[in-house]
């Protein structure tokens, strides 16, 4: 069983590449961003709480995010493997993930980081904002905030997996197909 974290800044291509990886490996795809947006759409209590952070491009508090992700994870105990997308984004989340995987006798196989320069991310997100319907993609101030939060609070999580020798970096520039085949090859090695 392979449990992969697809990591990277907003706009790196995590969502797009996740679709290919799910098709190839049959992963259960757990995207915290998607789950939050689903809750916002359905106006759940969690959605209402999360919305104000997401609209400002800030991280949703750890306790809320971890509890939500853990209960999603527990729904798929018969999975052939998990693809975590957008989680963990803090060291506390990384530790919690290890803990709740460990309770099911599971562990993270690898964290794969998609690397893309900020200028490219900014232009990709502004472009995506024209059609994604996501308020956090439509506003350059919010996008700037999300990139700042990534560099200040989230990028450091890579160290956690480097220390465990589980961190792999993949160039996120190039065609969707090229990047997808590199990712498939990397995951195929495990
Ligand atoms: P994403 O779709 O991954 O870009 O996430 C959209 C927004 O959801 C982020 O800008 C955060 O506000 C929130 N979010 C998603 N995942 C997390 C997480 N692991 N921790 C905290 N906030 C998150």
Question: How would you explain this protein's 3D organization?
Answer:
- The chain is of the alpha/beta class and 190 residues long.
- The relative contact order is 0.20.
- α2 packs across α3 (45-56) and α4 runs parallel beside α5 (91-102).
- The chain starts with a strand and ends with a helix.
- The mean pLDDT is 97.
- It has one domain: P-loop containing nucleotide triphosphate hydrolases (Rossmann fold, 3-Layer(aba) Sandwich), CATH 3.40.50.
- A 5-stranded parallel β-sheet has the order 2-3-1-4-5, sandwiched between helices.
- It is built from 9 helices and 5 strands, in the order βαβαααβαβαααβα.
- Adenosine monophosphate (AMP) binds next to α2 and α3.
Key descriptive features of the protein:
binds adenosine monophosphate; 5 strands; Rossmann fold; 57% helix; globular; 190 residues
CATH top level is Alpha Beta
CATH architecture: 3-Layer(aba) Sandwich
**Major sheet: order of its strands?**
2-3-1-4-5
What is the domain total for the residues? Answer: 1
The overall pLDDT, averaged over residues, is 97
Q: Helix share of residues?
A: 55-70%
CATH H level: which superfamily? P-loop containing nucleotide triphosphate hydrolases
């Amino acid at each position: 069983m392979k449990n992969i974290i697809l990591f990277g800044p907003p706009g790196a291509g995590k969502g797009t590449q996740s679709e290919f990886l799910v098709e190839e490996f049959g992963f259960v795809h757990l995207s915290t961003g998607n789950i939050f947006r689903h809750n916002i759409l359905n106006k759940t209590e969690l959605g209402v709480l999360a919305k104000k952070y997401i609209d400002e491009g800030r991280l949703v508090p750890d306790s809320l995010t971890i509890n939500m992700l853990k209960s999603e994870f527990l729904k798929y105990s018969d999975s052939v493997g998990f693809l975590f997308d957008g989680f963990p984004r803090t060291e506390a989340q990384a530790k919690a993930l290890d803990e709740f995987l460990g309770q099911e006798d599971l562990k993270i196989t690898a964290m794969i980081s998609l690397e893309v320069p900020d200028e490219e991310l900014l232009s990709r997100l502004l472009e995506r904002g024209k059609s994604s319907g996501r308020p956090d993609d439509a506003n350059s101030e919010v996008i700037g905030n999300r990139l700042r939060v990534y560099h200040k609070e989230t990028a450091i999580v890579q160290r956690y997996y480097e220390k465990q020798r589980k961190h792999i970096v993949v160039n996120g520039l190039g065609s969707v197909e090229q990047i997808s085949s590199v990712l498939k090859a990397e995951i195929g090695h495990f």
